[in-house]
Write a structure and sequence with these properties.
two-stranded antiparallel ribbon; 74% helix; 14 helices; 349 residues; mainly alpha; single chain; 2 strands
Length: 349
């Protein structure tokens, strides 16, 4: 049992890192504009992330499984650890990097070490979302900004009432975004452990059923929540005020646009509906909340004519996005070598 807990610890560490970096971005703009207190945002974010992970987390995790099926617990431990260390390194620098990119890089590092072929189709699908998710988020934010601006101007609502509605809206949309994030990104945290899960399905009185995968996702969701509470405030402030100065209303637009983007790539129900109607469906792929939020902020900036956009901060963030998968892959490869040849633990079958 202690061995199992030890090997799962890297997944919990990665969950903590995701909570510290990616997950908090759902409420980053709300906290950055001082519309919602950090503790309130962290509590709501944590609860709905756990719900999303347990209830709807299975869909996006299958794409990572196709990219590289890590089939030994020791190998999964190293893959998650390499991704977590990479994310923590970027987090300490205050950069909202992608946990998705970190875990994908680590899985590719495992593929190279185990001489497993990397699925090019799955990799192409995942990398495509890295490009299109911030673009989709920027487009949504651009459209929502103009719609919201027109509604506010025509309604001539009092500033105090507008402030109240905005705070309520941020709480509701933040909860929705947190649920979508849990459903979408839990695959990053615990997906590599699915093929070597140590848990058994639990059924109580024939009414309550919790699968082994859901138990993994519950642990990962709790770890994410812990990361939100303990280490996310710095990244929240970077996204909320470091890239572009946001008003409370534009902060609501940013959260709404990024939340919808996450939902599009997380909802198995929406995917099945579009497929049944013979329409193009969004792939079920873990995408980065950081990229979605940054895309939304850029969309707002473009809607305002591109003024006051912090290009230096954007260039630093972009550099982090490029370096993350490469650093994670190299770190995973080196750590796998030590685990197998120094600690004599099999990292692949």
């Amino acid at each position: 049992m202690l061995t199992i807990i030890f090997f799962l610890s890297s997944g919990l560490f990665l969950g903590w890192s995701l909570g510290a970096n990616d997950a908090a971005n759902i409420f980053g703009t709300a906290v950055g504009t001082k519309m919602i207190k950090f503790k309130t945002a962290a509590l709501i974010c944590s609860v709905f992330i756990i719900l999303g992970a347990v209830v709807s987390g299975a869909g996006a995790s299958h794409t990572l499984d196709k990219l590289g099926a890590v089939n030994e617990l020791a190998g999964a431990f190293i893959v998650a650890l390499a991704a977590a260390i990479t994310v923590l390194w970027m987090t300490k620098a205050g950069l909202p990097v992608s946990t998705s990119q970190a875990i994908v890089g680590a899985i590719i590092g495992w593929n190279f070490f185990s001489h497993t072929a990397t699925s090019i189709s799955s990799l192409t699908k995942i990398v495509g979302t890295w490009v299109f998710s911030p673009i989709i988020s920027a487009i949504l934010a651009y459209l929502f900004f103009h719609i919201t601006k027109r509604i506010v101007e025509r309604s001539k609502i009092h500033l105090m009432r507008l402030d109240f509605y905005t705070r309520i809206g941020l709480l509701i949309v933040g909860a929705f975004g947190s649920y979508s994030l849990g459903a979408n990104n839990i695959g990053n945290v615990m997906g590599v452990f699915i093929n070597s899960s140590p848990f058994q399905d639990i059924t109580l009185a024939g009414l309550f059923h919790l699968s082994s995968i859901q138990q993994l996702f519950l642990l990962g969701g709790i770890a994410i929540a812990f990361g939100v509470f303990t280490y996310s405030k710095k990244v929240m402030m970077t996204v909320g005020s470091g890239i572009f100065k946001l008003s409370p209303v534009t902060a609501l637009v940013v959260v709404l646009a990024s939340s919808i983007t996450l939902f599009l790539f997380a909802s198995q129900g929406l995917h099945n509906l579009l497929t049944s109607l013979h329409l193009p469906a969004f792939p079920l792929v873990p995408v980065s909340s950081s990229q979605a939020v940054v895309g939304s902020v850029m969309g707002i900036s473009l809607a305002k004519g591109g003024r006051n956009l912090n290009f230096k901060k954007l260039s630093q963030i972009s550099l982090g996005w490029v370096a993350t998968p490469a650093a994670s892959a190299i770190l995973a490869y080196i750590a796998l070598f030590f685990m197998q040849n120094v600690f004599m633990q099999s990292v692949f079958k």
